[in-house]
């Protein structure tokens, strides 16, 4: 199971594009509110109904924990102590975590990026404590995946699939992603 955590002020495309990609690939994925509210408001006012709330989520054996960025979403995630504990436990158990845009700051503040290649939204590099900042669109270093920002949301989702051992190429083709990338100038 993949869990994507939502906090008020999350970047909508960074949560929903990876969720869509995962579900198209047949991967079980759930949106989780870090509050007790079942509707979470994104950074652009879009209300999203979640599958569960953090106090009710059983994260034991999770395949991956995913953090979308956005502001104040990323700082709200960073302030959530139960989520912070779950992220550390996930990494210590050898599980995977992923964060995009401003959200890698949560991993940085927890010391989970030390000695790892990582990327984030420009201006948040100083929050990636101990990381080797690459400025790549998406970066995977072992069990940690980071993404640059909203424009990286699809590549971030496909990288998550690859990390799970799933061939993302059929989805890239079917979703017209490869065509789009081949025509980009």
Strand order in the largest sheet: 5-2-1-6-7-11-10
Biggest sheet details: 7 strands, mixed
Number of strands: 11
- The backbone outline, from C-alpha atoms, is globular
Main structural class: alpha/beta
Distance between the termini: 37 Å
Task: Please write the string of helix (H) and strand (E) elements.
Answer: EHEEEEEHHEHEEEEHHH
| Assembly category | single chain
Strand content: 15-25%
Low-confidence stretches: none
Describe the structure using short key phrases.
185 residues; alpha/beta; 7-stranded mixed sheet; two-stranded antiparallel sheet; 7 helices; 11 strands; 21% strand; globular
Task: Write up this protein.
The strands form 3 sheets. This protein has a 7-stranded mixed beta sheet with strand order 5-2-1-6-7-11-10. The chain has a two-stranded antiparallel ribbon with strand order 3-4. The longest helix has 13 residues, at 12-24. The mean pLDDT is 96. Helix 1 crosses helix 5. With 185 residues, the chain is of the alpha/beta class. It has 7 helices and 11 strands.
